[in-house]
């Protein structure tokens, strides 16, 4: 079967096309029935939600079909790589709920790759080119026009060996020469036109120090690393389709003279995850961090996994979204609103309900005894009885949302307006009696009277009123800063624009509300505990939060207001 027919037939069985291939290979007894995958990030940045899609595939398929997935740090370019990233990568994979078999490093194969390159040189299959990268690029030709051979193509083997050693000893300067595979300058696949396989980089490597100065290129490291480790299915994204013949070619070359003869990794490609209103390129994400356009890699507006975690996303929601979008052979732009829909569904089942008032105005219950405090029981999550309940204090003076009172309200306004009745959540029905204003006409206090017979849960308390409001007791709450996040970019596909991506940032992506109030119970929560501020949205305590200065992040609103606003 071709992969496209796989893609079509697999939908019927509920398997994605990669699973189909794996199942078929296992059935056919390929690789002695072994299944081994790898997740191969380059430690040059933090993982983003696109990586999560690859992680779910690489680890998920190994888990499902009894195989193993290893973590390979693809650390062949010391310029951008760092151990900081390695630790972050591990943390994010674990957070998503996956376990690797072993941890490998492409840098562990530098000697083997070097030896392989030397072998190719000795066999007349590689040569040192001393042209500039511009000259080499000019000679590449076009897909329909063959390239021009380098003047160095037929250099004697001895000279190639000598120069290759100089590339690594520091005698040759960075950029002065490269090693190229001698393949086919007329091949319709441009990747075959004598690809560069080694270059000089004069920078300490975070693991191998100054031992190496000649570093292998991706195409000369990836397939070989898969082969050395015994990977059976090397799953990657679609941009590697044109690299596959080269991947196979170098493995064929390598297999000659190796005893792992019956083993060969197979590259399979699926479509990338792209999300609206954000960018996924590590280069751009790094620029946002370095230039201070966001507050670090884990800024809750970033599409990084640490950003999502800090914002209050659950790993389950991200995995559910990845399941929803599926794996295909066609690149597409995935809707952020769909991710949020998956998130709301997951958090609805998970989040503890608490009360918080973001834009407070005082409500005084004028007929409620001064100094009286009632402890009301409120369920933590109506979706899950096992989550239990907690106590919220009720008293004469409460904070309510400013939007929940209107002096002159239109007919269908079911919140507080003089003469109207509402229920205060988990407490009593109150009737609005008026308000007090300052000299500018701003409402400073709202007044109401309560009906003592209407307490929630008491016999006869089921009198129906149209509105239910949340509140916190003025004497029993804590002030908090609340950070409201919006889309990081103001246009749907910033990656496709010609303008610089920095110009496309949404200036309103972060709004800080410095003076909110949360009920005491919310203040006892910690980062990574999922909360719903009733009637408002899902929230999580931020890592900046302290006992003296509480900080909460809005994860997502209760409803999708964005789609409505923009369509
Ligand atoms: P860069 O942005 O630096 O090119 P990258 O996004 O390719 O890097 P890697 O660290 O090389 O990042 O990626 C590790 C793995 O994650 C690769 O197999 C890659 O195919 C996969 N991956 C990266 N981005 C996405 C994405 N948006 N969707 C799905 N998989 C992705
Ligand atoms: Mg890459």
Question: Cofactors and ligands present?
Answer: adenosine-5'-triphosphate, magnesium ion
Measured between the Cα atoms of the first and last residue, the distance is 42 Å
Helix content: 25-40%
Poorly predicted spans: none
Strand order of the largest sheet: 10-23-24-25-21-22-11
CATH class of the largest domain: Alpha Beta
The number of helical elements comes to 15
What is the number of beta strands? 25
Keywords: Aminoacyl-tRNA synthetase, ATP-binding, Cytoplasm, Ligase, Nucleotide-binding, Protein biosynthesis
Binding site for L-glutamine: 74, 218
GO cellular component, one term: cytosol
Pfam families: tRNA-synt_1c, tRNA-synt_1c_C, tRNA-synt_1c_C2
Secondary structure: elements and pairs:
Layout lengths: L2 H11 L3 H11 L8 E4 L9 H16 L3 E6 L9 H14 L6 E3 L4 H13 L3 E4 L3 H6 L18 H13 L8 E4 L14 E5 L13 E3 L1 H12 L3 E5 L6 H12 L10 E5 L11 H9 L14 H7 L3 H11 L10 H15 L1 E3 L1 E2 L2 E6 L8 E6 L9 E6 L2 E5 L19 E4 L4 E9 L5 E8 L16 E3 L2 E2 L3 E9 L24 E10 H4 L7 E3 L3 E5 L8 E8 L3 H6 L1
Parallel strand pairs: 1-2, 2-3, 8-9, 10-23, 12-18, 16-19, 21-25
Antiparallel strand pairs: 4-5, 5-6, 6-7, 11-22, 12-15, 13-14, 15-20, 16-17, 17-18, 21-22, 23-24, 24-25
Helix pairs in contact: 1-2, 8-9, 12-13
Bound molecules: adenosine-5'-triphosphate and magnesium ion.
Subunit structure: Monomer.
Family: Belongs to the class-I aminoacyl-tRNA synthetase family.
Protein name: Glutamine--tRNA ligase
Characterization of the model:
Residues 133-147 have a biased composition (Polar residues). L-glutamine binds at residues 74, 218. The chain is an alpha/beta fold. It has 3 domains: 16-270, HUPs (Rossmann fold, 3-Layer(aba) Sandwich); 282-352 and 480-565, Beta Barrel (Ribosomal Protein L25, Chain P), CATH 2.40.240.10; 357-470, Ribosomal Protein L25, Chain P (Beta Barrel). Helices cover 28% and strands 23% of the residues. The protein is built from 15 helices and 25 strands. The chain has helices spanning 3-13, 17-27, 49-64, 83-96, 110-122, 133-138, 157-169, 218-229, 244-255, 282-290, 305-311, 315-325, 336-350, 520-523, 561-566, and strands spanning 36-39, 68-73, 103-105, 126-129, 178-181, 196-200, 214-216, 233-237, 266-270, 352-354, 356-357, 360-365, 374-379, 389-394, 397-401, 421-424, 429-437, 443-450, 467-469, 472-473, 477-485, 510-519, 531-533, 537-541, 550-557. Strands 10-23-24-25-21-22-11 form a 7-stranded mixed sheet. The longest helix has 16 residues, at 49-64. The chain starts with a helix and ends with a helix. Bound molecules: adenosine-5'-triphosphate (ATP) and magnesium ion (MG). The site of adenosine-5'-triphosphate has 15 residues, from helix 3 and strand 8. Adenosine-5'-triphosphate is lined by residues 40-42, 44, 50-51, 53-54, 236-237, 272-273, 280-282.
């Amino acid at each position: 079967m071709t992969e496209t027919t796989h893609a079509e037939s697999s939908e019927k069985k509920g398997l994605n096309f990669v699973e189909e291939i794996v199942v078929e290979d296992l059935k056919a007894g390929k690789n002695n029935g072994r299944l081994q995958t790898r997740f191969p990030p380059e430690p040059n940045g933090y993982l983003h939600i696109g990586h999560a899609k690859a992680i779910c595939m690489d680890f998920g398929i190994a888990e499902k079909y009894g195989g193993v997935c290893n973590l390979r740090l693809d650390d062949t370019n010391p310029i951008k790589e760092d151990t900081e990233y390695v630790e972050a990568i591990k943390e994010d994979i674990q957070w998503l709920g996956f376990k690797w078999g072993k941890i490998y490093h492409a840098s562990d194969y530098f000697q083997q790759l070097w030896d392989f390159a030397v072998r190719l040189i000795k066999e007349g299959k590689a040569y040192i080119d001393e042209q500039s990268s511009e000259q080499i690029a000019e000679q590449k030709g076009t897909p329909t026009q063959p390239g021009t051979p380098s003047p160095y193509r037929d250099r004697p083997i001895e000279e190639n060996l000598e120069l290759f050693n100089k590339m690594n000893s520091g005698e040759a300067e960075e950029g002065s020469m490269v090693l190229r595979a001698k393949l086919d300058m007329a091949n319709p696949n441009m990747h075959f036109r004598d690809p560069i396989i080694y270059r000089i980089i004069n920078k300490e490597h975070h693991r191998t120090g100054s031992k190496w100065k000649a570093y292998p290129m991706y195409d000369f490291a990836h397939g070989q690393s898969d082969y050395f480790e015994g990977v059976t299915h090397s799953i990657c994204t679609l941009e590697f389709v044109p690299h596959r013949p080269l991947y196979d070619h170098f493995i064929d070359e390598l297999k000659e003279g190796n005893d792992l003869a019956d083993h060969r990794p197979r590259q399979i490609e699926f479509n990338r995850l792209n999300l609206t209103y954000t960018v996924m390129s590590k280069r751009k994400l790094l620029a946002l961090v370095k230039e201070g356009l966001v507050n670090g890699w884990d800024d809750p507006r970033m599409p990084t996994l640490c950003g999502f975690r800090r914002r209050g996303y659950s790993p389950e929601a991200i995995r559910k979204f990845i399941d929803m979008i599926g794996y295909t052979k066609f690149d597409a732009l995935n809707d952020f609103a769909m991710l949020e829909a998956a998130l709301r569904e997951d958090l609805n089942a998970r989040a503890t309900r608490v009360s918080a008032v973001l834009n407070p105005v005082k409500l005084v219950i004028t007929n409620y005894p001064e100094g009286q405090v009632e402890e009301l029981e409120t369920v933590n999550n109506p979706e899950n009885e096992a989550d239990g309940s907690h106590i919220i204090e009720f008293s004469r003076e409460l904070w309510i949302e400013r939007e929940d009172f209107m002096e002159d309200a239109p007919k269908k306004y079911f919140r507080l307006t003089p003469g109207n009745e509402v229920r205060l959540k988990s407490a009593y029905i109150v009737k609005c009696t008026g308000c007090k204003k300052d000299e500018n006409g701003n409402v400073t206090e709202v007044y109401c009277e309560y009906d003592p017979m209407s307490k929630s849960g008491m016999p006869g308390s089921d009198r129906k009123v149209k509105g239910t409001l949340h509140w916190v007791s003025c004497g029993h709450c804590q002030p908090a800063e609340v950070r409201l996040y919006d889309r990081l970019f103001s246009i749907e596909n910033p990656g496709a624009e010609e303008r610089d991506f920095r110009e496309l940032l949404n200036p309103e992506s972060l709004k800080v509300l410095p003076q909110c109030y949360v009920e005491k119970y919310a203040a006892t929560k910690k980062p990574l505990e999922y909360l719903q501020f009733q009637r408002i949205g899902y929230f999580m305590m931020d890592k900046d939060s302290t006992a003296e200065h509480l900080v909460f992040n809005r994860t997502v609103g209760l409803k999708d207001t964005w789609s409505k606003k923009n369509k």
